[in-house]
Design a protein that fits this description.
By secondary structure, this protein is an alpha/beta fold. It is built from 7 helices and 6 strands, in the order αααβββαβαβαβα. A hairpin with a 6-residue loop joins strand 1 and strand 2. The longest helix has 17 residues. The protein starts with a helix and ends in a 5-residue tail after the last helix.
Length: 208
């Protein structure tokens, strides 16, 4: 059985979203069809509003309504320290962790600024240095008095390749370069950790 043509177009549009297959897109389309008109109009307005009013911050490349964004425009944040992440969601996760730590009186671990790459190096996928925001990072470090760069890319092949490239990119500068620690998660049991995780945890040990 085929959908009516307007539903088919909506299903095709929804199925282009990451992680949404055709069946899920069909369920979402039928939900929109069966809900009230006010919700459909609100959804349409929200989509257009995002496209019209969200832009990239010219400093850190995050999504923002303003330029500079609220973090880059916050004088209480340390402008000499930049945390480099691959994706906007990674920055949100770090900020959420920072907020939760403050709420339960744990010492805040990061109060610097960010740089969002909008991707990771993946030559097999055709993603090279020109496809992500590496030139903007180099320019920013050269012009803004940055003293430390913390690389917070994932510990997979693409994340490690990106971290290595950034290291090479900045090796002739006076910037202090560091990598976030990898190892056993809080609450994790050593007996269930894989060899790579245990090795990283041992290499990243620190004095008490």
């Amino acid at each position: 059985m085929q959908y009516a043509e307007p539903i088919t177009r909506l299903v095709k549009a929804l199925s282009r979203l990451p992680g949404v297959g055709e069946k899920t897109a069909g369920r979402l389309a039928l939900y929109v069809l069966n809900t009230n008109r006010e919700y459909a109009e609100e959804l349409a307005r929200s989509l257009i509003n995002v496209k019209d009013n969200v832009r990239l911050c010219s400093e850190c490349m995050t999504f923002s309504e303003s330029d500079p964004c609220s973090i880059c425009g916050d004088d209480s944040r340390d402008k000499e320290v930049i945390c480099v992440v691959g994706d906007y969601k990674d920055m949100i996760a770090i900020e959420a962790s920072f907020t939760k730590s403050s709420a339960i009186n744990i010492r805040s671990v990061y109060n610097g600024r960010y740089h969002i790459l909008h991707g990771l190096l993946a030559p097999l996928k055709g993603i090279g240095p020109e496809e992500i925001k590496l030139k903007e990072l180099a320019k920013r470090i050269g012009n803004h008095g940055v003293k430390e760069v913390i690389i917070a890319t994932p510990f997979d092949g693409e994340g490690e390749a990106t971290a290595h490239y950034i290291g090479e990119l900045l090796k002739d500068t006076e910037v202090s370069l560091s990598r976030i620690a990898a190892g056993i998660p809080v609450g994790g049991s050593i007996e269930y950790m894989d060899a790579s995780t245990l090795s990283r945890a041992m290499d990243g040990r620190r004095k008490l």
